[in-house]
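Journal club side-thread
Mid-discussion, someone asked how the predicted structure for our own chain would compare to the paper's figures. Pasting it here so we can look after the session.
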Amino acid sequence: MDRKILAGVITFALALNLPTVDVSAGKPKYTEQEVANGGSISGVVKYEGPLKEVRIDLMKEKNGETCSKHPEAKDGVRFDHKILSSNGVLQNAVVFIENIEQGKAWGKKDRESFTMFHFKNCDISPAITVIRKTDKGKKTGNLTVTTHDGGVLHNPIGYLVSGASRKVLFNKPLSSEVLIADATKSLKRFKRKDKHFFLQCGQHNYMEAEARIVWNPYYFITDANGLFKLDQVPAGKYKVTAWHPYAGEHTQEIIVSEGTETPADFAVKSTAHR
């Protein structure tokens, strides 16, 4: 597009008080505004498919004695349950609105300390969560990694995942001298097309965590009953997705009316998983 024409389009949009446009991404940025008489979306995420668990022989790995103190370890072995599902529902699925341009404000926690990972007993918690691009001018607090394993060297490495490829975002060793690593600045590199973040310990590669990159505050991580609720949603038609890094995803269009709770169940089906 001609530069003069592009400049004219942007000026015209600003004059009409339209949402700010991220020209490089081709998508409007999210704008916070008061939501009067908003609706909600609630339901359950169901799962049909195999479970996934990884057997970890801790005594064959580094720091076996210490890592075997994990509460789920038995005789030096523990299982990492990648898919948690019982009675046909899916736990730790991220349900989020994809195509919303304006709505409720990010919460106070979202602004001050959004994603916090903890390394303890050679495990990472939370195992599945959400992560967001660092706001302009913010230098700390958007992503922190803390170790609680004294005397054990951990090496958090953050990746941007796209299909089968991974791109390193940060590499920040932890030790008894360095207990907290802050990777806030690294998340400024996110682009709107980015979706999946992966965290792994470079010293103990079975230590893993996953996160969905979110671009607005309309998200929910399902509980053990597979339940979710998105509230203060402006009336409109939205693309809503239930995503799980191992089980898969399900997307549907949902119409929300003012002051109304809209029921919406999701069905994640998988014959195989990564």
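Post-session note: The first strand starts at residue 21 and ends at 22.
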